[in-house]
Structure formats: structure tokens, C-alpha cells
Write a structure and sequence with these properties.
Elements lengths: L1 E4 L17 E3 H7 L1 H7 L21 E2 L8 H4 L6 H11 L7 E3 L14 E5 L2 H10 L4 E4 L2 H7 L4 E6 L11 H14 L10 H9 L2 E12 L8 H11 E9 L11 E9 L5 E7 L13 E4 H6 L12 H12 L4 E2 H4 E5 L6 H4 E2 L1 H7 L6 E5 L9 E2 L1 H9 L5 E3 L9 H7 L2 H6 L3 H4 L15 E4 L1 E2 L5 E4 L4 E2 L3 E6 L2 H7 L6 H10 L1 E4 L2 E3 L2 H4 L3 E2 L7 H17 L5
Parallel strand pairs: 4-5, 4-7, 5-6, 7-8, 9-11, 16-22, 17-21
Antiparallel strand pairs: 1-2, 1-3, 8-10, 9-10, 11-12, 13-26, 14-23, 15-18, 16-18, 19-21, 19-23, 20-25, 24-25
Bound molecules: S-adenosylmethionine (SAM).
């Protein structure tokens, strides 16, 4: 995707309003075709920092990815399929006189379904598209949180699809304003929240008493830590809250799964979340009937404020919860610590093949075999034979392990001063440590666990004293007796299900376990299960794998 056309140097933050001078952002051009040309002539924001110093400012081509505000990924600009918009608006709007808001209206596809509506959109191209598409609606171009802080308007209903902007990009003044506004409304988000959750809270704050809202939400609502304050806010602010978990993709082109949120009776509260678990979205004017009621006490105390476990049959949840309740069931963090491995700063430079080490004459006491990623992990344990096999295959697994104030032999000094060494020291991590060649936090873990997994997480015992990078988890056992008793249960159906419930879907069928999540994996002492119980646990693993699209 590239930005094509004529650029002019303008001060940051100003809009470029030069009719007749087309600037076309390729991703929007593909979306709107010729219409984009006309729109672009009206206004386009080009931060002056993007105009390359050395280039002729009048004629430059810049990758649109360098315009974070408007790149599709950074602004979360993924527009909703018509059938989904129609279903949400049909439910939210009860009377023609109902005033509806879409806080991030994109090209106006929700607004076009109801004349009496208001949309806010920060991207001028999309805002103009919305004006064309929904002529009956009132459209404000700008940041929703600024607008929401200042407006006195209140609405009967809201519908939309808020932008999913991760915390790394959802930052600065906009995030501060969003989080302050949510705090005023009674929802406390940390700086790690993605943008969609504050969008929903801030929109709820604009509803009249008794108001309703219907939104597309990322399936992260079922597991993300920041989904918990959102759900807490919703149950304290609405008489009825319903989540529709949809297994098939609402947006076939996206790796992100989406669910639907319906909330009504603003100003009320509820002690349960209605949940509907369906395989696919079926267009209808009302949400599908709830298939279960999520008791908030259970959600908080048993399920760590996650909705994902409710994808399982109630009988399996009870079996799992009863095992969790036993005093001889322990979380991994009860007897071991889960940390990340070292960050070398330049994996290629710091990991040598045995043949390279030999050629460079690096003494073996400066080299430590290491697991570089999950793919390199054997099935159950890392033994001397595993390391010998790596050496036979001449794998790049030998970490150059140097310590501060160490006397370095000439061969090592020569390698550090070689062309790859001079390049490695310029990298971010190396630049910010002294001396640049000492890789910090190199540990010898007792076990190594995969961080991202396909079929299931892998745990291997480290019998060979190898180290590991941060692409896998480094497990250090604190209570050896408990570990010896429980760790052999790793491949049991209960522990595998626990990995599915404590971890989360990453997209592409992968299961991701953050260190915090891995620490919660539950190990029961019970080994004997009835055949029916074992089958129920195995079925539950298959259900969770299907929800993360493993082997779809
Ligand atoms: C997921 S899209 C949804 C658009 C539309 N509601 C739909 O579903 O088709 C999110 C939209 O939010 C806009 N957006 C991102 N940050 C915004 C902000 N702070 N204020 C207003 N709109 C914003 C993006 O430009 C994008 O058009």
C-alpha cells in the first residue's frame, strides 16, 4: 500500500485543503475507487514529518504504513458486513424517532440504516464517505473521545463496530482522554487496554436512561484482562447484557474473531450475563436466544473473569470446577515460576553453529547450548543426546555467553569486532546495555514450555542444562516434591484442557500462553478418572481447539 501523488509540507495536525490536488491513499482508493479521488481533493492530513527531507517535497511517494493514524491496521478500520449492521441496527432502533449514535462510523454503513443518527469518525476520507452514504445522518469528523467529553447530546440507542487498536498504538493524548472519560463513568482500564473497550463504555455514557446498544466486539471479550472491567461496568449499568459468541468468522479476511454484544436498560443493573454460543451468525432482527446464564460470582471466582470457559458444556465446566476446588489441585505458579528466557538483541550474531564456533576458534566455555524457539523443542525432555543431535545437524544453538569484566580471548574479541559484530551492537537492545555483548538474564531453567502452540502446549524437562530465549517460557521449580508429584500429569486431558482455558487463541489456530496465564495452569492430584469423565475432558479440548480454529 502506498500513498501516491503530490505532497506538500504542512504543519503537523493541519488539514490539507487544496482542491484539485489529488493525494490518494492506496488502501482507500481500492475501497472507494474513483470516489476517493473526489474526496481526497477535499481534505487530507499529511504530517510534515512524513515529507522526506531529501526528496522533492512536491513529488514524493511514501508508504502509507508510515501514516499510523490512517493505516487500516493502526486505526482499526475494518468495516462490518451489511447483514451484521442490519441485525444490530434493527434490534437497537425501536422507533423512527429514536436517535442512534455510531461512535466510530467508518463509511457510515450503520448510519445509512437509520436516518435519525449521529456518527463520529476520525478519518476524513471515511467521514466524507459516510456523509455520502448516509445523507440523513449528522457526521462529526474527529476523535470520538474528545467529542464525547464535550457533547451534551444523549441517545436512545447506539450501534457500531469500535476500532480494535492495541495498546501499543492506542496511546498518547487520545488514550489519556479515553481512560479519563471511562474513569468518570466508573470503569477503570489500565494502559494495556485495547481501544474498543473504552469506546463501548464511553458510548454507554451517552445513552438516555433505558437506552440500548449493540456492537461488534472482538472475541477477546472472552479472555482479555481489560474485558473484565468492561463487563463489570456493563452489568452495573444495564438491566440486561447479552454476549453472542460466534465461532465462524464474521470478517472472513481477518484473523481476529468477533462476537456480538447487546445491552439494554441503561441505568439498571444485572447479576448475570446472558450468553448465546453459536457456530455462525444468522441475520435476524433480534439476538438469538441465550443458551446459558453466566452467574457473576462464578465468572469472578471460578473463571478468573473470563467468558471463554462458557463455550464448554455445563457438565464439563462443573467437572473442571470441582477438580479446581480440591485442596490437592495446584496451579503451576504454586510450585514453579514461569518467566521468559533471555533476549539476545541479535539472535543470528549471538547463536553460532558448532562449525562456525570451531572455525572462529571460540572456546567452548564461552558457548552454551540453547533452545531458540518452540520448534526446536523435543517432545518430553532435553537430554545430552538431544544436544548431540543438534550438534550433528550443525544447528545454530550455541549462545555466545560472555560476562562483564571477563578476560576475553583474541578469537572472541575478533568475532565481536567482525562486520556482523559491528552491526549487532547497533541494535536497540545492544545499544542500551553495557557492555553490548553481555546477554543478560541467561538462566538454566528446569523445564521449557512453548509460548505459542498448535495442537497443544509443550513442556519439556531440561536434563541437559541448556538455556532458552524469550520465544519459549523458562520454568524454575520452587517446590520440588510437589512438582515431582504433579508434573507427570502434564499430558493428562485435565491439564491440556487447563492450558486451553487459561491460554487464549492467537489467530491462525494458535494457542498462546502468556507467563501469567501459564502460571494458572491447574494440575490435579487425581489420576483416576472414569471413562466418561476422560471423554468429556477430551471433547472439551476439541471444542476449545475448534473455537481457536485449530485444524479448521
Ligand atoms: C472497525 S472500523 C468500523 C467502522 C464502521 N462502524 C463499520 O463497522 O463499518 C473503526 C473505525 O473507527 C475509526 N476510528 C479510530 N479511532 C477513532 C477515534 N478516536 N474516533 C473516531 N473514530 C475512530 C477508524 O477510522 C475506523 O473507521
Amino acid at each position: 500500500m502506498e500513498l501516491v501523488g503530490l505532497l506538500r509540507r504542512i504543519p503537523d495536525g493541519e488539514f490539507w485543503k487544496t482542491p484539485g490536488v489529488p493525494v490518494i491513499c492506496a488502501d482507500h482508493y481500492m475501497r472507494f475507487g474513483q470516489r476517493a479521488l473526489a474526496l481526497m481533493q477535499c481534505s487530507f492530513y499529511v504530517p510534515s514529518s512524513l515529507v522526506a527531507e531529501e526528496a522533492d517535497p512536491a513529488k514524493v511517494r511514501i508508504m502509507v504504513a508510515t501514516i499510523p493514524e490512517y493505516s487500516q491496521k493502526h486505526s482499526g478500520a475494518y468495516f462490518t458486513p451489511d447483514a451484521v449492521c442490519a441485525a444490530l441496527v434493527a434490534w437497537a432502533v425501536r422507533k423512527p424517532s429514536d436517535r442512534m449514535i455510531d461512535p466510530s462510523c467508518g463509511d457510515g454503513r450503520f448510519l445509512a440504516l437509520h436516518r435519525n443518527s449521529v456518527g463520529i469518525e476520525q478519518n476524513p476520507i471515511s467521514a466524507h464517505a459516510a456523509i455520502e452514504r448516509a445523507p440523513g445522518a449528522l457526521i462529526h469528523e474527529g476523535d470520538f473521545f474528545t467529542w464525547a467529553t464535550e457533547t451534551h447530546e444523549r441517545f436512545e440507542c447506539a450501534a457500531g463496530n469500535p476500532p480494535f487498536i492495541r495498546y501499543q498504538s492506542f496511546k498518547g493524548e487520545m488514550r489519556r482522554r479515553a481512560l479519563d472519560l471511562c474513569l468518570d463513568l466508573g470503569a477503570s482500564f489500565s494502559g494495556l487496554t485495547s481501544s474498543w473497550a473504552p469506546f463501548i463504555v464511553a458510548t454507554a455514557g451517552l445513552l438516555k436512561r433505558g437506552g440500548r446498544m449493540a456492537f461488534v466486539v472482538p472475541a477477546e471479550i472472552g479472555h482479555a484482562p481489560y474485558a473484565a472491567p468492561l463487563l463489570d461496568y456493563l452489568v452495573q449499568s444495564f438491566a440486561k447484557v447479552q454476549i453472542v459468541a460466534v465461532r465462524d468468522k464474521l470478517f472472513p479476511a481477518l484473523s481476529e474473531d468477533c462476537w456480538l454484544l447487546y445491552a439494554e436498560g441503561f441505568g439498571g443493573n444485572t447479576d448475570a450475563i446472558d450468553m448465546t454460543v453459536v457456530d455462525n451468525f444468522l441475520p435476524a432482527r433480534t439476538p438469538p436466544k441465550p443458551t446459558l446464564r453466566v452467574d457473576l460470582d462464578d465468572w469472578r471466582k471460578v473463571w478468573n473473569r473470563r467468558l471463554r470457559p462458557y463455550l464448554l458444556p455445563a457438565s464439563t465446566r462443573s467437572l473442571y470446577a470441582a477438580t479446581l476446588d480440591r485442596s490437592d489441585t495446584h496451579r503451576l505458579a504454586d510450585f514453579a515460576s514461569v518467566g521468559i528466557g533471555y533476549i539476545s538483541g541479535d539472535n543470528q550474531f549471538f547463536h553460532l553453529r558448532p562449525s562456525e564456533a570451531k572455525k572462529l576458534r571460540i572456546p567452548t566455555n564461552f558457548l552454551l547450548p540453547s533452545i531458540r524457539n518452540g520448534r526446536a523443542m523435543p517432545d518430553t525432555q532435553i537430554t545430552k543426546a538431544t544436544v548431540a543431535e543438534w550438534a550433528r545437524k550443525d544447528e545454530p544453538v550455541l549462545l555466545l555467553r560472555l560476562a562483564r569484566d571477563m578476560e576475553l580471548p583474541k578469537s572472541v574479541r575478533d568475532y565481536l569486532d567482525s562486520a556482523p559484530g559491528r552491526e549487532a551492537r547497533l541494535g536497540y537492545k545492544c545499544r542500551n546495555r553495557a557492555p553490548w555483548y553481555v546477554v543478560p538474564d541467561v538462566q538454566i531453567p528446569d523445564y521449557v514450555m512453548s509460548y505459542m502452540s498448535g495442537r497443544g502446549a509443550n513442556l519439556v524437562r531440561n536434563m541437559a542444562g541448556v538455556s532458552c530465549t524469550n520465544s519459549v517460557h523458562a520454568i524454575r521449580v520452587r517446590d520440588k516434591a510437589l512438582a515431582a508429584k504433579l508434573m507427570p500429569g502434564w499430558s493428562s486431558p485435565f491439564v491440556r484442557l487447563s492450558c486451553e482455558l487459561e491460554g487464549h487463541a492467537l489467530g491462525g489456530g494458535m494457542l498462546k500462553l502468556e507467563p501469567r496465564e501459564a502460571g494458572r495452569i491447574a494440575f490435579p492430584a487425581v489420576a483416576n478418572r472414569t471413562r466418561a469423565e476422560t471423554e468429556a475432558l477430551e471433547d472439551a479440548i476439541t471444542v476449545m481447539q475448534r473455537w481457536r480454529h485449530y485444524a479448521d
